[in-house]
Amino acid sequence: MNNLNHIAIIMDGNGRWAKKRGLPRSMGHKKGVEKVREIAIYANKLGIKCLTLYAFSTENWKRPEKEVNYLMSLPKIFFNKYLKELMKNNIKVTMIGDLNKIPLEAKNIFKDAIRQTSKNTGMILNFALNYGGQSEIVRACKQFAKDYKDGKIKTLNEKTFNNYLYTKDLPELDLMIRTSNEERISNFLLYQVAYSELVFVDTYWPDFTCTDLDKAIETYMNRNRRFGAVDEK
Ligand code: IPE
Ligand code: IPE
Ligand code: MG
User: Any idea which ligand is nearest the CA of 62?
Assistant: First the structure.
């Protein structure tokens, strides 16, 4: 049987969900936030160890300022509403990405949620914010080069490189799901996705349900993960 410790989701389709209903894109994002709560609580109940959610990519700064500002206001809405519930469910909040550019208010709200939930022992709810896979790899290389120069590390291999990634303390990525019928990775967890199973679903993120997650997990369970080897007979 396939172990399933770490799921990552590219939560895509908020804008199209709104457009289909004649609503502004922001309404899609708002509805998307509700889904984050629902899916996180459910995944925790399923016993998933870590759920990484792609909330904002390093490329999403290209969007109109108004939309970027709205997206950056969502952490406040989310944690004001749901931090208590996350605590009650023993969920631990973490984040990955380059936080330097994140507006102070959103950054502080995250820091506070991370601090308050740091002793929780349930699922890790890991937000990728201002995250880009390429920039993560370049950052890791730079840090390795510095440590090498300082004599702190001698060998670089797949294992030691892992220690320079944002995800160093997280379980290996088993399953990556993308909603909204797009079949691309969009710079998400490029290093970590090496042997993950990919599941693409048609549903826009605001319509994604716990049943859709069940289905994606079932698809994953039916996959044959070979990791380059051959099946033992
Ligand atoms: C995903 O939905 C949310 C973020 C990228 C922040 P989109 O906003 O990309 O929605 P579509 O893809 O335009 O429908
Ligand atoms: C990926 O979605 C980023 C997030 C879900 C945060 P995008 O909507 O930004 O990706 P592209 O532009 O369709 O590749
Ligand atoms: Mg999109």
Answer: 2
